[in-house]
Amino acid sequence: MNVAELRWFLVLADTEHVTDAAAMLHITQPTLSRALHRLEKELGTPLFDRDRHRLHLNPRGEVFQQHVRRALQEISTAEDRIATMLDPQQGTISLAFPHSFGRWLIPELISAYRQQAPTAQFLLHSDAADAVVQSLRDGGSDLIITSPEPADPDLAWHPLCEERLWLAVPAAHPLAGREEVSIADAAAEQFITLRPEFGLRQTTDLLFSRAGHTPAITMEATEIATIRGLVASGLGVSVLPRDPGTAEPEGLTLVPLTDTDAHRTIGTAWHRTRPTTPAVRNFRTFIAERTVRQR
């Protein structure tokens, strides 16, 4: 058996129809039938039950299908690793990050990296901070860029920059005219926040805890843009970073927070023991050595 015929078998197992499978593979029906005959002869058993009109994968075929899938995945992984050994700039880097970083930090880093590694490929995934960290634990991501630092001893962490946090208030709010405020000044306000699985919410909760206050949270959202709109409409206040490259919505004012920890630390994390490709290691080294502009 050869790799091409194993791939043909998987298509045939999915379609259970020789004519359809041959059309999908761009080969003739007799060619596919002969390949299946050779495979079954080598294994010493039929892999399909046959009736007049189509094939039906039998239990032996189902077992073979499972192992062939795994074998072809291993071959694909080996091909990718060898390719990156020959050219470390090649290879796919799976990178996960919270939604808000996709507006400024991720494009900034990838654009800069592509100048020195133009063939590098990226598989990008954005989600809440908890889901981003879980994707790294599960092996779904090679690297993550997130905030705050994951509380997991299996994950290594390198801080990249700090992003300042502001008190977002409606433009007509009494605090809107202040040059600066503290968390204590806003302790009696009604707050709009992200849901608990989001990193900014976790940072905000810690900020309030250190200030000795418990915020009155009246609304929770899943997007910072939604919170900006709600604040601008006069429905509450929030602790937010600036929106990079975009003017704040009309009716919203950002007031600097004086609390010393009114910022979120953004960094990159990776699994301490999981093997990585040269492409991933090169990108990780690049972002660790790069000075990211403070915000």
From TrEMBL:
Q: What is this protein called?
A: LysR family transcriptional regulator
This protein's source sits in the domain of life called: Bacteria
In what residue span(s) does the HTH lysR-type domain sit?
1-58
Is-annotated flag, keyword RNA-binding?
A: no
Which of UniProt's keywords are assigned here? DNA-binding, Transcription, Transcription regulation
User: What does the similarity note say?
Assistant: Belongs to the LysR transcriptional regulatory family.
Question: Pfam families recorded for this chain?
Answer: HTH_1, LysR_substrate
Question: Can you provide one Gene Ontology molecular function annotated for this UniProt record?
Answer: DNA binding
Look up the record and report any one GO term of the cellular component aspect. protein-DNA complex
- Family matches, as SUPFAM superfamilies: Periplasmic binding protein-like II, Winged helix' DNA-binding domain
Does Ubl conjugation appear among the keywords? no
What organism is listed for this UniProt entry? Streptomyces kasugaensis
